[in-house]
Amino acid sequence: MPWKHWSSERLGLTFALLAALGFSFKAIFVKLAYAVPQAVPVDSVTLLALRMAFSMPFFVWVGWRASSALQPLRPRDGLLVLALGLLGYYGASILDFMGLQYISASLERLILFTYPTLTIVISVLFLGKTASRREIGALLLSYAGIGLAFAHDLQLAGDTRAVLIGAGFVFGSAVSYAFYQAGSEPAIQRLGAARFTALALLVSTLASLGHFAATQPLGALVQPVPVYLHALAMAIFSTVLPVFMTSAAIRRIGASKTALIGTLGPMLTIFFSCWLLDEPLSWWQIGGAALVLAGVLLISRRKTAPTLQAKTGSSPCGESAGSSQK
Predict the structure, then answer these.
(1) Is the CB of residue 227 less than 8 Å from the CB of residue 68?
(2) Which of 102, 121, 94 lies closest to 326 in space, CA to CA?
(3) How far apart are CA 113 and CA 193, in angstroms?
(4) Tens digits of per-residue pLDDT, 242-260?
(5) Around 255, how many Cα atoms within 13 Å sit in the side-chain half-sphere?
(6) Could you tell me which residues come within 8 angstroms of residue 158 by beta carbon, excluding any fewer than 6 positions away?
(7) What are the φ and ψ backbone dihedral angles of 114, each rounded to 5 degrees?
(8) In angstroms, rounded to a whole number, what is the distance separating the alpha carbons of residues 216 and 60?
(9) Considering the chain, what percentage of its residues have pLDDT values greater than 70?
(10) What's residue 164's pLDDT?
(11) I need a surface site. Which of 72, 260, 294, 303 has the fewest CB within 10 A?
């Protein structure tokens, strides 16, 4: 059916679903790249540099289009974009890629998906806000779900230390992204969503390439063709397209509905990791995923009526709360 015959809401729902699908594939592409046969497997720094380098032309174009008719950044805004870009797309991504060297894609997605609840913790600790009973319940549900999935990976792993290390890296990634989400709302309000997102991703890209240049030999970029293909697919289908589809969905159906559809992400990752990576699937994982999703749903429900009624009472997750767009 042609796009022009679709209602705005139906199109928004489709964009949100496709964005959730794209984001859920990120861990799959990373694990596939790590599994490419070669004498020395591709490392996390090189893989992240390839992903961001392939993504950069798209964000340069969007940033130029969004900024061409606007005033130059004030120094304060420039520093904010710099800090949030380093936190949200560079720091969180490199920690996530490092963690995926040790743990399953299923566990990675569950741990990473706690960033909405972590954003609440950050708001309470650093922004002077208070947590409601609903929010505390969401935290307990989410971390109980991670505990179940974590116990499953520990039970199957031959190296318990590796699982602990990997989970620690991915949790650090979720914390870094939660700080990004908590700080992104005022930046988006001042700069606009497209301009801020493009600039933050450009900062992340330069930081990723700088990290590679400082720590890896140039010869590390010489990889088998499948590694390039997985990195290119990750850049297009799990970075560029989901970011803009999420923005398009938010414009049509709002942040709350987009966030609710985004909760499908962990379940999609578990399904595809079982299908494409031959990772084991157990009731522990399904139960853990259900608890994590229940926690995120509680947070998403909290955002609707009070947020729409108050000028300054919006969620610290901002308008992109439904997108784990690392």
Answers:
(1) no
(2) 94
(3) 22
(4) 887 887 787 787 766 776 6
(5) 19
(6) none
(7) -85, 0
(8) 25
(9) 84
(10) 86
(11) 72
Residue with tokens 């679709």: 6
Res 192 pLDDT > 90: no
- Quote the crossing angle between the two packed helices 115-126 and 160-191, to the nearest 10°: 70
CB 3 within 8 A of CB 249: no
**Residue 88 in domain:** yes
HSE, CB side, 13 Å, CA atoms: give it for residue 109.
34
Contacts made by residues 277-285, CB under 8 angstroms, sequence distance 24+: 277/28, 277/31, 277/32, 277/35, 277/104, 277/105, 279/104, 279/105, 279/106, 280/156, 281/106, 282/152, 284/148, 284/149, 284/151, 284/152, 284/155, 285/106, 285/148, 285/149, 285/152
Residue 111 pLDDT: 85
Report how many domains make up the chain. Answer: 1
Q: Do 220 and 99 meet the contact criterion of CB atoms below 8 Å apart?
A: no
pTM greater than 0.90 (yes/no): no
The residue among 39, 38, 175, 151 whose CA lies nearest residue 99 is 175
300 domain-assigned: yes
Structure tokens, 181: 């989400």
Q: How far apart are CA 282 and CA 152, in angstroms?
A: 8
Q: What is the pLDDT of residues 138-176, one digit of tens each?
A: 778 877 877 777 777 777 666 778 888 998 999 999 899
Determine the structural domain holding residue 103 and report its residue range: 3-320
Rg, Å, the chain Cα set: 19
User: Domain for residue 326, yes or no?
Assistant: no
Q: Which of 52-56, 87-91, 149-153, 285-289 has the highest mean pLDDT?
A: 52-56
Angle between the 44-67 and 193-215 helix axes, to the nearest 10 degrees?
150
**What distance in Å separates the CA atoms of residue 107 and residue 167, rounded to the nearest whole number?**
8
Tokens of 150: 């974590």
pLDDT band at 68 (very low <50, low <70, confident <90, very high): low
Residue with tokens 């985004």: 262
In a domain, 13, yes or no: yes
Give the three-state DSSP class for 324. Answer: coil
